[in-house]
Every structure is written in structure tokens, then in C-alpha cells.
Amino acid sequence: MKWIAVSIVAFVVCYTLINFYYRKSGKAFEPHEDLANRATTARLLKAGWNRIPVTTNRPADHIARLKTAPAAISRAQPGLPAELATVLGEPPRLLATIGQVVAPAEISRGTDYAAVFQCRAPDLKAQLGGVSLYRKRGVLILIPSIELMPGKLLGRSQEGTYCLNFPTRSLPPGRYTAHLVALGPAARWEIRVK
Fold first, then answer.
1. Percent of the chain beyond pLDDT 70?
2. What's the rounded Cα separation, in Å, for the pair 192 and 194?
3. Helix, strand, coil percentages for the chain (3-state, nearest 5)
């Protein structure tokens, strides 16, 4: 009986050491999520959409200091554009509204484009999770999506001000129409890439 216990302990120790030595670093493979993301990417590419990485952060002040003239911001239709909504596998959870937006009207190709926007979450259980940018020809669709706070946490306010940045290396020179979407009032403006 003693040898069985010793062999079990030896096996567990060896297995643990081998597991730590050969384990893949980073996020583990999640079959459902990874396969859904691959299928969505394939549908986006087939429909002519490209995805551009976007970073978001909370700025110290509410108004961006622009080095160029600000873009004229107008109101846009609420919700996702129908053409993009049919391609995305699972529709993102959208913000309730987009408020004031401060963004440059033109940018030099190769630099990062930065815009500041005010928004409102649907309730105190939600916060901005990130922004996705999809491009098709001269249209840029910015989709800020929310994530729910875990447990019984609540936000201090439904309103927030965020700064979004994206690289312009993959944008050919020309004019683009940017749409910042939400469930309610959304924003739209023109960008010229030089």
C-alpha cells in the first residue's frame, strides 16, 4: 500500500513539472470563441471589410487639443449599419448614446488618428469594453462595445469620456466617412487622409 501512495505522489510531481515546463504561455485555446472569431473574420474579409486595431483610454480633460481644424460632427442613424450587422457573427453590445465628439478633420498618413468622445452606458452595470474599427473603401465604422461589470459592482456614473486612437498606415490617401455607432444618437464626420 505504501508503494502505491509513493508512486501516485511521484506521478503527480512529475506530471506537474512537465506540465509547467511545456505549457503554452498566454491565453488558453477556447474552442467556441476562437472558432467564432475565425468565422467572423472570414465573413468580414469576404464582404470587403478590414479590421483596424483601436486603443482607448480615459483622457485627463474632456476636450482634445487638436493641432488641425476639428471635423464637423453630425448626428447619424442609431445602431449598426445593416451591411455590417449581417456579417458580424454575434452583434456587439452597444453604448446607449454618443455625446460630444472632438476629432481632427485631416491627418497625415502613417500617424495615429485620435478622437475624444463622450458617451452614456445603458445602465450602471455596464462600462466601455473597447472599440472596434471596420473599414470598407471610404467608410470607417467605429463600434464602442460595453462589457458588464462582474458581481454586484456598479459604476459611479453612466456617462464617460474616452479617447480612441488608431493607426492610419493601412488607409490610402483620400476622404473617409467615420461613424461612431450607439443604440441611440450616434456621430458621423469626414476625415481626409493626406
1. 95
2. 6
3. 20, 40, 40
Per-residue model confidence (pLDDT) at position 66: 64
**What pLDDT is stored for residue 74 in this prediction?**
86
User: Strands 112-120, 159-167: parallel, antiparallel or unpaired by DSSP?
Assistant: antiparallel
Distances, alpha carbon 100 to alpha carbons 23, 62, 184, 186, 188, in Å:
47, 9, 13, 10, 11
> In which region does residue 126 sit, left (phi positive, over 0), alpha (psi from -120 to 50) or beta (all else)?
beta
Global confidence as pTM: 0.78
User: Beta-carbon neighbour count of residue 87 at 10 Å?
Assistant: 19
Residue 64 has pLDDT above 70, yes or no: no
The CATH number of domain 50-193, selected from 3.90.1070, 3.40.50, 2.60.40, 2.60.120: 2.60.40
